[in-house]
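Example 365, ligand zinc ion.
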Amino acid sequence: MPRDYYEVLGVPRGATDAELKKAYRQLAMQYHPDRNPGAKDGEERFKEVNEAYTVLSDPEKRAHFDRFGTVGPVAGGGGTDTGFGTLFEDIFENFFSGGARSSRRSRATRGEDLQYELKIALEEAAAGVETKIQIPRLEQCDACGGTGVEPGGRLETCDFCRGRGEVRRTHGFLTVAQPCPRCQGAGQLNRHPCARCRGEGRQRSERLLSVKIPAGIEDGMQLRLSGEGSGGANGGPPGDLYVLVRIREHEIFVRDGADLYCDLPVAFPQLALGVEVEIPVLNGTAKLRIPPGSQPNQILRLKGKGMPHLRQRGHGDACYRLILEVPQKLNPKQREALLAFEAASKAERGPLALAFLERMKKLLG
Ligand SMILES: [Zn+2]
Ligand SMILES: [Zn+2]
């Protein structure tokens, strides 16, 4: 899931801000949906390029990405309109004509979506876990209640556009409407910005949240905590928080859906004679009966000892693959016993060996 943002932009890791911007510009021009209407993969690429630039152009996020290869606890809103929209407009002011936009842009914007990566153990994924996470995010400024206006002050109607948010210019027969340059299309001016949030209506904050991880969750799944992202600016709604669950590698088990797999080393006599062995299960040990005549790589299952199913009752299985380990050195007693075994086996080859001998005979005529 964490992409290499440098690769996305096609720049080296040490790229300067100017190089980043240049690469971003070229790619964004290439994939901009206005230029490729209806091209779904172009749109995906466009989002990807935007995301990469959003992260790498922010020194804090870039440093985090360089160190950890992830966007970290505060991602620049994967897919929110606010972040990308404004970023895009900043850079491309002059490249694209505004298109059909509503004439008056609201000052209120939705808060960014945030992503938090939560690492848990396989045992926790099996049992489910409730945990606390610390989220740095922007919240509504409590000095101004999110309006961005100094207490006692208020928004004034823009005198340039008289509150319409747009200005119209007439060229001959043609009337062109443009967002008002003074109020950026909001129709209102904030002449007394709140001192604490500098008029943005939001302030930095850390929030301790409780997250409940359901039993059976899989690596890479995301939980959405609605409204727990950053607060909106100027009275806009908050974004969402996505908790990305990563499950740490387990010492013994590899997971496949609800089944757990374990490679179990065994010796030839154990396979041939059969044996009961003590084996690990997710929360302790259990007994596994290896029947006589078991074959290498055969998989034996303990029903219901795997992971719980996420959305249904029951559990998967714990599966043990029999890995035959042949001794690399023999002591004299072992050698003697094996020679005796081999001498006793000559007349009784197994079905695989017999079938192979048959095929060889045919081949040689
Ligand atoms: Zn404020
Ligand atoms: Zn105006």
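Summary: The chain is about 25% helix and 25% strand.
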